[in-house]
Amino acid sequence: MPNYRRWFVPGGTYFFTVVTDGRQHILTADLARPLLHEAFQAELIRTPFDLTAIVLLPDHIHTIWTLPEGDSAYPLRWKRIKECFTRDYLAAGGSESGRSMRAPGRGRNVWQPRYWEHVVRDEDDFKRCLDYIHWNPVKHGLVKRVRDYPWSSFFKWVERGEYDLNWGEGEVRDIDGAEWD
C-alpha cells in the first residue's frame, strides 16, 4: 500500500481534482449538475469556505478553495459533499459505476475513493491553477474556446478583470507542471 499523506495548511488555498468512479460521464448531465450544486451549497452553509474557482467536466471536477483562518478540514468537507451528492443522485435515479476502484463494502460507486489536492504556494502558483481550471474544457476537447464552456467559473473571473473574454483563443496552452487530471 502506498504511503499517502495529505498536507494540511490552516487557512490555506488548495487546488483539488475529484474524479467519478470508473470515470463515468455523469457530472455535466441534467440530473447531476443541480444535485452537485446543492451538495456544495449545503457544505458552504455548514462549514463555510471560499469556493474560489471551479470547472465541472463530465467525469471530474477541479476546484480552488480557500479555507478560513485556522481551518484545514477540507477532507471532511469533501466527504460530506460526495456523500450528499451520492445520496441524492442515486435517490433521483442516477446509477453507480459498474466497475469500482473501491474494496467491496467500502461505499457507493459514484466517486473514486481518493482525490488529488495541491496546496497553492503563492500568487504565481494560484494563477497557474486558475488558468489550468479554465483551460481544462479546451484541453479535453469539449469546446474550442474557453468562453464556450458553461460549467466553469471563467465568467466570474472575466468580471473581476482577471481574464479577457477571448482569453486563450488561438493559443495552444501547456500549463507547466499542471498534469493534474
Order of neighbouring strands in the sheet with most strands:
2-3-1-4
Instruction: Note the overall shape.
Output: globular
Roughly what is the average pLDDT, rounded to an integer? 89
* CATH evolutionary superfamily of the domain at 13-96 and 108-122: Transposase IS200-like
Give the percentage of residues in beta strands.
Answer: 5-15%
Level-2 CATH architecture of the domain at 13-96 and 108-122: 2-Layer Sandwich
The count of β-strands is 4
Estimate percent helicity.
25-40%
SSE string: EHEEHEHH
Per DSSP, the total helix count is 4
Euclidean distance between termini CA atoms: 22 Å
Q: Low-confidence stretches at least 5 residues in length (pLDDT < 50)? A: none
Biggest sheet descriptor? 4 strands, antiparallel
Which topology of the domain at 13-96 and 108-122 does CATH recognise? Alpha-Beta Plaits
Rg, Å, rounded: 16 Å
CATH level 1 class label of the domain at 13-96 and 108-122: Alpha Beta
Class from helix and strand fractions = alpha+beta
Question: Could you walk me through the main structural features you see in this protein, from its secondary elements to its overall organization?
Answer:
By secondary structure, the protein is an alpha+beta fold. It has a domain at 13-96 and 108-122: Transposase IS200-like (Alpha-Beta Plaits), CATH 3.30.70.1290. It is 31% helix and 14% strand. The protein is built from four helices and four strands; from the N terminus they run βαββαβαα. It has helices at 32-46, 74-91, 123-139, 154-159; strands at residues 13-19, 50-56, 60-66, 116-119. The chain has a four-stranded antiparallel sheet with strand order 2-3-1-4, with helices on one face. Helix 1 (32-46) packs antiparallel against helix 2. The longest helix is centred in the middle third of the chain and has 18 residues, at 74-91. The two termini are 22 Å apart.
